[in-house]
Amino acid sequence: MAYCQELNLEEVLRRVKQNNFTMQKQDLSIENSMITTKNYYKRRFLPNVEFGAEGELSEIADKGVGPEKISMKIDLDVGRQQLNRYKIQKNSLEMAELNREKTWYNLQEEVISTYFQYLSVSKKIEYIEKTLGVLNNHRRKLDRMLNGGNLIPKNELLKIEIDIEENNIQLLSNRYNQNVLKQKLFTMMGLGLDQDIDFKEIDSSTVFIDKNIESIKVAENKGLKLSKSARIGELQMENAVYENKIAKAELLPKFYVKPEYLFDDVGYSKKGGRVLVGFDWNFEWGNTLNDVEVSNNSVKISEMDYKERVANLTLEIREKYEQLKMAKLALTVSNKKIALMRENLKLDTSRFDNRLMGSNEYLESVNNLKEAEEKLYEQQQELFLLNLKLKNLIS
């Protein structure tokens, strides 16, 4: 007997986080950014070293090839341009890591949405199969009555057969959708498309408002302190300030120190070493001053962007908090309603079997329950997503 593994939502999310191709690609990109940051540090803060020799061919033939001089140029970071560029690089790396987390949040939402769509389609299939069972039993009963000489209208039998065919078409369509959704979940988990895996139902009563955000004020405070979106805004504002400092440093001359050691007595009064100190200053009147002015404006824009980001974050936290409370209440009402409709369907099934109810009325009763079940899955999905979005906003 084949064993079909069943996964719950938490297990699916864990596998997606570990094995999803998008997440793995982002991890590699962040690793490349870390290497780039290290290389940037080495290029900017470690001196350039020159070591070599040159000469005419006749001299080389006579004396051989040996090093002529070794020199090292050290740029003095008077205006702290190099340091500020390095800080920008580090902040950019942190933003890449934060955006990776935001990608994971978006992926979680997609997984949850797909998971509930799969459960909804599976529930439809379950109801269609049950309906087909009832309709086929009723068709056999009518067929026996018709062939046994009972005076029943033949169109009653034909109507049941049409209902059976329509439900068979719905069954095929939903099985196709079920397979597509299942394979989508497999892909997000980094698995092949052909897996002997199914997915478990979800107990919506396990969804609750996190104790850390029971108060809307607590949620807002946590959001402003811990939110990755707010942190990205801070880093963007910091980078604008660093860019401004770099632009202003362009107004200053560039100083450098260059130690040299000469191996042959060429150009020196004697063999040995010397230390050169120099500077250069390249001032492009309009361009340099305009760059500073543009940079000043960029700082103001980044500050306004941050304030706007914080305001929108606070607004979204409040909105999601109230929506979560309403979704929890709506789900409780729907669960009670569906429990009553299930009891009613049992009675309607018995009435239909005893020919006390027509097929149209019976199928209407089935469809009403099926639609209510579909809505329940939508409400469960909304509840899970709102809970996730609120937690993600404040972390």
Largest sheet: 4 strands, antiparallel
What value does the Rg take, in angstroms? 36 Å
List how many beta strands DSSP finds.
6
Order of helices and strands: EHHEHEHHEHHEEHH
Question: Could you list the spans in which at least 5 consecutive residues all have pLDDT below 50?
Answer: 266-270
Q: Which class do the helix and strand fractions yield? A: alpha+beta
Percent strand = 5-15%
Average pLDDT confidence is: 79
Helical fraction equals over 70%
Shape label = elongated
The DSSP helix count reads: 9
Distance between the termini: 46 Å
Biggest sheet: strands side by side, in what order?
2-3-5-6
Could you give a quick summary of the protein structure above?
The protein contains 9 helices and 6 strands, in the order E-H-H-E-H-E-H-H-E-H-H-E-E-H-H.
